[in-house]
Amino acid sequence: MKTNTLTLTAMVSGLVTLPQVCLATDFRVMAWPGYVSDSAILEFEKRYQVNVELSVIQTDDQMWTQINAPKGKAYDVFSLNTAELQRYIDNNKVQTIDTVLIPNHKNQQAPFDELHSIQGLSRNSQLYAVPYTYSEMGLIYNTDEFSKPPDSWNILWDPNYRGRVLAYEGSVHNFTLAGLSIGIRDPFNQSNEQLISSSKRLIELRRNVRTFYSSPAQSLDYLINEKIVLAFANYGSQQLNDLHKHQLEMAYTIPKEGALAWLDTWAISQSSPSRLLAHQWINFMLSTEVSEQLTREQGLANTINPNKQYFKNDNIHWLQPVENPQLRSELWQQIQQGVSEVSFNP
């Protein structure tokens, strides 16, 4: 994790002061790579006199396992996309959120100023998460290999690039991408027959894949050191930011079928004993300073200065809850293990 030096004055300025109440000695956070900087942790610890324990997750499958671990750590807050949020609400894994305790929400710009109008954040008029960042998941390609951007996701399956494709580790997005590539009308909600077709498609993709990555840092390492010419960019603009920083002969495009996109949020775990402190964390992460640091250091969009045109792009497919995430995970495990045909037991 990269550290950016922010002075106490800079971090505190612009924040609305909430009660300086310490409800716990330890405050546990689960987040995606790059979402929480070292300097943000140090400042929050100073401000609220707590010890922040950060766990970095790299796939939705991993997050679900850790939140549901019977003897695992009790997390206070965690970041997840709006599609994944639905099964956490279904299984009573998240608390409701009171925006009165998050005064920095007033700095969030359209479309994030009307939280109840954003699909997936609310249920029965109760708010369960607050937006933090977002990105589409495009296609990375080697500019030495391609004189113009590939125009279709099907390029990932081209046998000419066998052993030169970099794929993401997570199960849910891969099945959606496979469905998108073969023209399934709703790749988020696939029938059993469609899941079998997507499984076959992913088995074909595996033959082209050199390796799988789970984090932006791991992706960058493979792009630098392996003979990769194509990659599915699960972290989107965060990976594009790395390409620019390291001046790689790589570029980024959105194919004609469109790109999947996620809206990541902060949610409060049902197991958190520190409801007020959890709200204070979300409020802190929505400060102008922390939001702008996220964009400056990670290349990720923030909700304080959003790109409003982004949400008018018809070629963006915002993530939706999928038909059976557990089944997708089980099928994906088989595919990674090298089966030629999945064993399907819905």
Automatic annotation (TrEMBL):
Compartment(s) of residence: Periplasm
One GO cellular component term noted in the UniProt record for this chain: periplasmic space
Keyword Transport in record: yes
GO process annotations (BP): polyamine transport
This protein's UniProt keywords: Periplasm, Signal, Transport
One term of GO molecular function: polyamine binding
Signal peptide: 1-24
Keyword set includes Transport: yes
Chief location bin: periplasm
Pfam families registered for this protein in UniProt: SBP_bac_8 (PF13416)
SUPFAM superfamilies in the cross-refs: Periplasmic binding protein-like II (SSF53850)
PANTHER family: SPERMIDINE/PUTRESCINE-BINDING PERIPLASMIC PROTEIN, SPERMIDINE_PUTRESCINE-BINDING PERIPLASMIC PROTEIN
Name of the molecule in the record: Extracellular solute-binding protein
